[in-house]
Amino acid sequence: MSVSDITELYRRSSAAFGERVHAVEGRWDAATPCPGWSAHDLVNHLVNEERWTPPLFGGATIEEIGDRFDGDLLGADPVRTWEEAAAAALAAIEADGALDRTVHLSFGDHPATEYATQLAADHLVHAWDLARAVGADETLDPDAVKYLLAWFESMEPIYRSMGVIGERAPIPADAGPQTRLLAMFGRRS
């Protein structure tokens, strides 16, 4: 996948999550499929990722960033906070040469294209989580699902060994791509 394709994948996945943020409409305490997380917790998690994105794509290390994005970042207007953080993250990924760099993550140095793909996957799967929590449309972008399904096949064992996803959910043999992707991430659709 080209750099422009990865940028588009990220843009569309972030937009999918943003659509679900707008659908929360006061149901910030709604339980999500993520154990122990409410809609508020889930959106805060993604805002945290969005806040980390500009410095990481700018070359900062985890140590340099420190704990400045810890805690509750949503404040009094969670939707606006999401929009601002998402816009800053997208600008960082779209910056000239951003995806040609190396990012310094807690689990080592990785190509920025790989990290942008990881972020896109997190946004897309969590878009489904948030939709499930608040009763919004659970349909995910089929092109993004197709690409992330192929990408995640080799990544699933690594994610599982790191403990960042649950057990693979059982699915019928004729399950479609979205159901298969969600099952790989431990979701029961």
UniProtKB/TrEMBL annotation:
Residue ranges of the Mycothiol-dependent maleylpyruvate isomerase metal-binding domain? 11-131
GO molecular-function terms, A-Z: metal ion binding
Highest taxon of the lineage: Bacteria
Identify this protein by name: TIGR03086 family protein
